[in-house]
Amino acid sequence: MKENVELVFEICVVIPKREAILKGDEDFDCGNVFARELKNAGLVVDRVIGNSDEFFKVAAPLETLGRAAAELRIMKRTHIGMDLQFDMVEVDAFVKQPDGSLFSWYERFQCYCHLMHGIVNNSKSSRILKFNRREIRWEVGEHLLPKLESEIIIKQIFPLHDDKIRKKLLKTWALQWWDFTTQPVDEIYAYYGSKIAIYFAFLGMYTQWLLFPAVVGLIVYFIDYGSANLVVLPAFFIAVILWAIMFSQFWKRKNAALLARWPITYGNAVDEEYKVVGMKGNAQPRQNPMDLIKLLEADRVKGKKVFTKYEWFNHLLRIRNDALIIISIICLQLPFELAYAHLYEVLNKDIIKFGLTAIYLATIQYITKLGGKVSVKLIMFEHNENPETRADSLVYKVFGLYFMQTYIGIFYHALLHRNFGTLRKVLIQRLLISEVVQNLIETSLPYINYNYKKYAVRQNKEKEEKGSAGTFQFTSRVEKEFLKASYTASTGEELEDGLFDDFLELALQFGMILMFACAFPPAFAMSALNNIMEIRTDALKLLAMMKRPVPRASATVGAWLNIFQFLILMSICTNCALLAWLFDEEGKWKIEPGLVVILIMEHALLLIKFGFSRLVPAEPAWVRAARAKNSSQARDMYTKRLLRTISGGEKTRELKKIE
Length: 659
What we know:
Blueprint: E1 11-16, H1 30-40, E2 44-49, E3 53-59, H2 62-72, E4 75-77, E5 83-85, H3 105-117, E6 127-131, E7 134-138, H4 144-150, E8 156-159, H5 163-174, H6 185-192, H7 194-222, H8 229-261, H9 270-273, H10 289-298, H11 300-346, H12 350-379, H13 387-417, H14 420-464, H15 477-483, E9 488-489, E10 492-497, H16 499-515, H17 523-545, H18 559-583, H19 593-615, H20 621-658
Antiparallel strand pairs: 1-3, 1-8, 2-3, 4-5, 6-7, 9-10
């Protein structure tokens, strides 16, 4: 099991810099003991002394990773397409990653978790550790990493950037402006994992597809068709709805193609053993299904009752949490939104309206983020099956809050006041503030935060070394990385990373441009331009301004695709309402030929939405053919081995009879 790869330090453990270690205490010092135990686990450690902290850079040879993967019973793709438990002896049977490595970044990270959390005091008595003249008792059978975290000796554990790959991605991805939608998705997958790679693949495809409605929208808006506008706008509406339906279906095909290209297997429940975020030592609270299965095997009648009770209790918990979110939206957020919409309608000056919108968005963002954090707390009490279902539950709850925040004021202007001019102004202001300003905040805040931390460290160091000559400098790259911000969600790091906010931003943009397509067709062009910038700024943010994110298991965009499907349905209804308003200028809502056509068109588009999935398969034909071939090969191998086993048994019995 040999692979000619350069050993790369991928994990960093940070502990505060200690006072001078007393003579004779070297063997008991926490840092020395921790480094020694890591080496005993087969890891390679490089210690770097920073200005205020000490950094333990950790790497793992391939043999160590292979041993950890076998202990974790990680499932890996084989050359016949089956997912089998990893075995070091049969390493050649497993498919390698697109970059040629045996393990993906996600698998390597889980192996690091297992090895570092697996350090236990196996001696016959407790051991005394020392840290800055403090004595810490390491009990028999106690895990070292959680112990040091609880004693606030380990400040942080985070993945390290690979400077060689990072610089390559900066050149070929973040700073590649000429080919503005093409991205090195395979390299992103190898470096960041599947979840981030799928997000950028989705963002790139979405941006490419936006170019068509962007061009058509500009033509529709800037060319005066006179009385023919009543025909042009419905035609544009039909075109963009069909575009959205086709996009969602063709994304499923692209997603399936990516999964066929990447050997992704997440059938091992590693996420259940460790809390992924930040490599914390404590697992998230959950009911162990194996206990229920054992109970069912022991007493079938009692086991069924317990299973049924467990199932319905989980459903009731989710219903209760969803009800709390809905009630909070209706009682707290809805009045605030309607008050803003009414003030906007009665004010006369545009500059005051723009200022009101800015204040409103800043206030409502804080309120909505607070609601998101409450949602996280509620979800922690739910008994979800795995981290992905927990994340999906968060998506639905938080999107409900943001849906109300983003669209209720626009609905107010569109359907109650029925003022196209005001509606267009609101859409322009929302798009400018929510997209342009949001991009500026996303890119500038991490940079400001990083420089502030550098300044704080520099000030503390200068106070400690008062009177010393020379200019203060950060000499180690690892210390600079430690000062960078983590890629976390606005709701907290418990369930999601920063992709949650990025996907939320995309979903809200998609809903805004699609649900009011008839009112402001150039919104598609504004969003396309924004997304071209978004690809590069997000890439630059990940590569240069933030720590390397913790990899998360995900093979699809998850609940976000359902959100996009929901927004398409809403768009059919809202645009038909806008068109009906155009045909009914006097507000009498008479049944006229134009209104009848709009109603028929609405029902036809709804039928197309539900029927299009049957016309366009969710998987390309080559993916289905490759899976069928792999299944046939696996079945043939199993059949031959089973027949060989049976025939061997029969021959053995015949020989025994002859004897």
